[in-house]
Design brief:
222 residues; alpha+beta; 4-stranded antiparallel sheet
């Protein structure tokens, strides 16, 4: 994950006269406050510019070659990021309820994305645009702290995933999901899981059979 460029745009989004913060957004602000407390004025600003959207299964938020203009918080559902290798899709990341998602390089650098972001299930999310977030960085310093903490968290997770895929056997990769990310096994089908682990569906079936004696639920997941 590249370093974040916190440049602020010359043009500032207009603040509306009337501000309405929807009750369902309590989940979003609760999440932000759990990362780092933000001021009431910051919440009012974010409440004025944040938008919500519902997309159906297999619908795209971002396609390869597009510039990502959204950073979002998932209220319910599941999204995935993937790239294409020839005729094969390679899953890179999954986001679930309560996660923050974006195409990091494309969003922060405002350059064409090399990946796709697609709904795995019907998904409801709240999102900020690039300009809205840049305005927050400039005018509400606490948002810079929130961004830094989240980027550090997701960067560490991505490094662990890369190390896992490059340096461990397929069986150990699957055990890692069982121990650290059971939500992936519980919510995704075998095709998605095999792609994420960079193994074939046949090998995934073998692993589940091997583990079924010691982890009965492993054989039934997906």
């Amino acid at each position: 994950m590249p370093k974040t460029n916190l440049r602020c745009p010359a043009a500032k989004p207009q603040m509306p006269v009337m501000i309405k913060i929807f009750p369902v957004m309590d989940n979003f602000f609760g999440f932000v406050d759990s990362v780092y407390p933000i001021s009431g004025d910051c919440k009012k600003y974010l409440g004025s510019v944040i938008r919500n959207k519902v997309i159906e299964k297999r619908e795209y938020i971002l396609r390869e070659g597009e510039i990502c203009n959204k950073i979002g918080f998932i209220e319910s559902g599941c999204l995935k990021s993937y790239s294409t290798k020839g005729e094969r899709d390679s899953n890179i990341w999954f986001w679930f309820t309560g996660d923050v998602f974006t195409s990091t390089t494309s969003f922060f650098e405002q350059e064409p994305s090399r990946n796709f972001i697609q709904a795995v299930t019907r998904t409801k999310f709240w999102y900020l645009t690039h300009d809205s977030l840049e305005y927050a960085y400039k005018n509400y310093p606490e948002t810079n702290v929130v961004a830094r903490i989240l980027l550090q968290k997701y960067y560490a997770m991505e490094v662990k995933r890369i190390e896992l895929l490059k340096g461990t056997a397929a069986l150990d990769r699957y055990k890692f999901l069982v121990e650290r990310h059971p939500e992936i096994l519980e919510n995704l089908n075998s095709t998605e899981i095999a792609s994420y682990l960079d193994i074939s569906k046949f090998r995934l079936s073998q692993i589940r059979h091997e583990l079924s004696r010691v982890i009965p639920s492993a054989h039934n997941m997906g």
